[in-house]
Design goal:
This protein has 287 residues and is α/β, with parallel strands linked by helices. α7 links the parallel β12 and β13. Ribose-5-phosphate binds next to β12 and α7.
Length: 287
């Protein structure tokens, strides 16, 4: 059965489509003054259909586009795969404070209800969120692609650092790819204000180049605090390698002001460092 890829024409989607030898159908979006979207497919769709839509900000709009495309695709096909490289709401995978709605569970139902038979994401914040989906899910990783890029940078005595304990597994994997060691800092985030603090007392990073590894950068708060801490402890240069560089608001500026020498990220968000993750995604969805 032939495969059709539906996308907004992003670099990542075009590459996935090319790797699969699929027919690529783009869609156009017209935004109405009240914020509604009018989505129009630019070609015929059939066969096995893969909808590629990353849910970077505006997150809710991106998700509604993905769901609308899936629903339309399901009218033409019995097999619809949703590729959502950056899955918004992934951090809302449990009730942290009483009364909070676990929106990841809601999303799972919406993806199934729209007609997706499977959802593929990249380096999701935590796989706990995917376990709330009532359909098959796959979490692809960009870590080997990011590490390959960092390897070429010829860093001095590099050390991989996770800004928090939750990212320790990610840092371990990255360090293994790089052939170096790793540490995980202890971060505390105030659940009401979002304020971040590094609780680790000290660490030996003197004269080492640091690769701070994270799944995503949103406001940059976590990276700024971690970079400031590492600089205070005498490290050499600090680079950041993350999969999803959302870089909301002044994030880029604050990160540069904290002394970060560069951000390496994947093409799950358009317009960032072009570390291409299409190979891993194409392998995951190949028939
Ligand atoms: C949190 O645990 C995540 O892995 C990221 O570190 C965090 O969500 C990034 O958000 P921000 O850039 O706003 O600190």
């Amino acid at each position: 059965m032939k495969t059709t890829v539906i996308s907004d024409g992003s670099d990542l989607a075009r590459r996935i489509s090319r790797r699969l030898g699929a027919r690529h159908v783009r869609y156009a979006v017209r935004e109405f003054p009240d914020g509604e979207s009018k989505i129009t497919l630019r070609g015929k769709i059939s066969g096995r259909i893969i909808v590629v839509k990353s849910a970077y900000p505006p997150v809710d709009t991106g998700l509604l586009h993905a769901l609308s495309l899936i629903a339309r695709a399901r009218e033409e096909s019995s097999e619809v795969i949703a590729v959502v490289p950056y899955m918004g709401y992934a951090r809302q995978d449990r009730e942290f404070l009483s009364g909070e709605i676990v929106t990841m569970r809601v999303l799972g139902r919406l993806f199934r209800g729209a007609g997706a038979s499977r959802v593929v994401v990249v380096d999701i914040h935590s796989t706990a969120g995917l376990r709330l989906f009532p359909i098959r899910t796959t979490n692809v990783t960009a870590i080997p692609d990011l590490a390959r890029h960092v390897k070429k940078m010829r860093l001095k005595d590099p050390l991989v650092v996770s800004p928090d304990r939750g990212g320790e597994g990610r840092a371990k994997k990255f360090a293994a790819e790089l052939g170096t060691g790793y540490v995980a800092l202890e971060k505390k985030r105030d659940r009401s204000t979002g304020r971040v603090q590094i609780r680790t007392r000290s660490t030996d990073v003197s004269e080492r180049d640091i690769v701070l590894v994270d799944d995503m950068i949103s406001t940059g708060g976590s990276i700024v605090k971690a970079a400031q801490f590492l600089k205070r402890h005498g490290c050499r240069r600090v680079y950041v390698a993350c999969t999803h560089a959302l870089l909301v608001g002044d994030a880029k500026k604050s990160i540069a002001e904290a002394g970060v020498a560069g951000i390496i990220s994947a093409n799950t968000v358009p317009g960032r460092t072009p570390v291409d993750v299409s190979g891993a995604i194409a392998e995951a969805v190949r028939p």
